UniProtKB/TrEMBL annotation:
Pyridoxal 5'-phosphate binds at residues 115-116, 249, 312-313. The keyword RNA-binding does not apply. Catalyzes the transfer of the alpha-amino group from S-adenosyl-L-methionine (SAM) to 7-keto-8-aminopelargonic acid (KAPA) to form 7,8-diaminopelargonic acid (DAPA). It is the only aminotransferase known to utilize SAM as an amino donor. This is Adenosylmethionine-8-amino-7-oxononanoate aminotransferase. SUPFAM superfamilies: PLP-dependent transferases. Keywords: Aminotransferase, Biotin biosynthesis, Cytoplasm, Pyridoxal phosphate, S-adenosyl-L-methionine, Transferase.
Length: 430
């Protein structure tokens, strides 16, 4: 299809619920008919530079010949087969790659079908672990404010109840513990007072705490905040001291987005459970994974249930696993460290001028993430239209105008993207 009709757009508006949208007052949606490289082609023929990598995922851009070939080859074999009682090469090789890319202790792999499910799996692992050790009272979680872990119920219960978009469900969600968010930035001098709130909760409540769950280094949808690696180190130490598992939600940060293969590597921290997703298939389809240690896996398996109590229908989907294998191989074989340094430099150079614009509170960049935080929440519909007019795709939320471009974006295109953002902000904030 090369175009989308006005009738189809009307049907979309009347019948399709888009993410975080209203059916009575829907935000505009922009029809896309194809995508290639780092550009999205609109129904009217215009092209947009994609600054979002489809919510962190399309790290190699769109229509990549290697990933296309992997999908074609696998679909001719089998697109799906149940994972219960069956295995296949794409899943085995994906598990092998994930074990190689993550810390050595993380050697047991549960292949899930979305990021939110990976978080649900991690939470269930932590709770079932303590139940197997005959400590069922350790069934609560602790996390930090401004966190975001997904939209399913278990994941929502550890999102910030105020800033995490799920306040309306507070009364029906499991009650967990929330520590103050880290305030010391990634490059700032460390002060142990920054972790005092988390320390106090763990000291007082550790008898009922199964795990600490957090997004390492970068808090995503809760505010695109970058915090000190020392906080992560101290959090790991607290978990060790008081007997909590550490769950690292690396769904958004994994696979080099922060400049390290995993955000945990910034602090040389090894979690007990790690969640991966988003970029795992290069944005081709939904897939995720939860990895844990032999000790956690064998403890769960030796418990009363005799197994881990989870099994999605599309777990280990061969098509998704095959594309993930090719995507991860592309990343591993590339000079990704230098490339992410290049992107970070370009983002800093391109976005720093925004700090001089009245109404901008802060500009911050880390790896392949660039954030311009405004003093007031943005009018998303108004500013998005302005971005479209500049030929760029940026999806702001709250006070944030942020980008995380595909890793293949060259410097000239990065400059066009960031200069377009600066021009729009000048117009929008005048």
């Amino acid at each position: 299809m090369t175009s989308i009709s006005a009738e189809q757009i009307r049907y979309d508006r009347d019948h399709i619920w888009h993410p975080y949208s209203s059916m009575t007052n829907p935000s505009p949606v922009y029809p896309i008919v194809s995508a290639k490289g780092v550009r999205l082609k609109m129904s009217d023929g215009r092209e947009l530079i994609d600054g979002m990598a489809s919510w962190w995922s399309a790290i190699h851009g769109y229509n990549h010949p290697v990933l296309n070939a992997a999908a074609h080859a696998q679909i001719d074999q089998m697109s799906h087969v149940m994972f219960g009682g069956i295995t296949h090469e794409p899943a085995i090789e994906l598990a092998r790659k994930l074990v190689e890319l993550t810390p050595a202790a993380l050697d047991k792999v549960f292949i899930a079908d979305s990021g939110s499910v990976a978080v649900e799996v991690a939470i269930k692992m932590a709770i079932q672990y303590w139940h197997a050790l005959e400590k069922p009272e350790k069934h609560k979680l602790v996390t930090i404010r401004n966190g975001y872990h997904g939209d399913t119920f278990g994941a929502m219960s550890v999102c910030d109840p105020i800033n995490g978009m799920h306040e309306i469900f507070t009364a029906v969600l499991p009650k967990h513990h929330f520590a103050d968010r880290p305030e010391i930035g990634f490059h700032q001098a460390w002060d142990s007072a920054d972790i005092a709130s988390l320390k106090q909760i763990i000291e007082q409540q550790h008898h009922e705490l199964a795990a600490l769950i957090l997004e390492p280094i970068v808090q995503g949808a809760g505010g695109m905040r970058f915090y000190s690696p020392h906080y992560l180190k101290a959090a790991r130490a607290l978990c060790d001291e008081y007997g909590l598992l550490l769950i690292a939600d690396e769904i958004a940060t994994g696979f080099a987005r922060t400049g390290k293969m995993l955000a945990c590597h910034h602090a040389d921290v090894v979690p007990d459970i790690i969640c991966l997703g988003k970029a795992i298939t290069g944005g081709y389809m939904s897939l995720a994974a939860t990895l844990t240690t032999t000790q956690v896996a064998e403890t769960i398996s030796a418990g009363g249930a005799g197994c881990f109590m989870h099994g999605p229908t599309f777990m280990g989907n061969p098509l998704a696993c095959a594309v993930a294998n090719s995507s991860l191989q592309l990343l591993i074989e590339s000079d990704w460290k230098s490339n992410l340094q290049r992107i970070e430099t370009a983002l800093k150079t391109g976005l720093n001028p925004a700090s001089e614009i009245k109404g901008v509170a802060e500009v911050r960049c880390l790896g392949g993430i660039g954030v311009v935080e405004l003093s007031q929440p943005v009018d998303s519909a108004r500013i998005q239209k302005m971005f479209i007019e500049k030929g760029i795709w940026v999806r702001p939320f709250g006070k944030l105008v942020y980008i995380m471009p595909p890793y293949i974006m060259d410097n000239e295109t990065l400059n066009t993207l960031t200069s377009g953002i600066i021009e729009v902000l000048h117009r929008y904030l005048k």
